[in-house]
Amino acid sequence: MKGKVYIVGAGPGRRDLLTMRALEVIREADIILYDDLIGEVLDVLRATGAELISVGKRRGEHKFEQEEINRMLVQFAKEGKRVVRLKGGDPFVFGRGGEEAEFLAKEGIEFEYVPGVSSAIAVPGCAGIPITHRRYDPAVVFITGQESRERMNWDALAKLNATIVVLMGLYRIEDICRNLIENGKEADTPVAVIEKGLSKKERVVVGTLRDIAGKVKAEGLSGPAVIVIGRVVELRESLANYQSKF
Fold this sequence. Notes:
Blueprint: E1 4-9, H1 20-27, E2 31-34, H2 41-46, E3 51-54, E4 57-58, E5 61-62, H3 66-78, E6 82-87, H4 97-106, E7 111-114, H5 119-126, E8 140-144, H6 154-159, E9 163-167, H7 173-182, E10 190-195, E11 203-208, H8 212-219, E12 225-229, H9 236-239
Parallel strand pairs: 1-6, 1-7, 2-3, 2-6, 8-9
Antiparallel strand pairs: 4-5, 9-12, 10-11, 10-12
């Protein structure tokens, strides 16, 4: 009898931001394959009694290649197990959850997508930066900092009247800012970098496209981080001092 795979979002790493459905399937799992960026949710996993396998990938450091993870999901499901594939944030927002779902479907394995609170929204919001606001840019664009210059249409991106949210881009922040400026984005466009958001170690650095890379280097930020580019960053000055941290 085939089992089932649950592709689950852990949210931004706080246990109280897990969805009720995520908590339900985690507690019922036989085996959990989890990524690095799940924070204190790891304590929830340890209390389940399920077999835990860390398959997290960071830049330049992969415990398992993606193809190996795909095959593990299929194998465990074929053994009749309830498998949770746990990812930080939302699995379908630059989390390769779509690739895993595609592979499972190709192999005839039943799966369920369990959405998570995306770090792209929650981390800036809890740092006093709503990513949308009627008085500011009318659109939001999410990009990954891991794409090459050739694959990203910097000309189109720079000309958009939109807030830009960058995930996994801290190590390329200088290139990102330079590419936007070279393609017409105003150099004084506000930028915020939120490192280790929603944790006790959270740090926020604010600047502009012109100077943010230098500020990040001076502060010694090393990630993980969410980068917000756009006028909504200005809201932090008026909101952050009054916004309570839960």
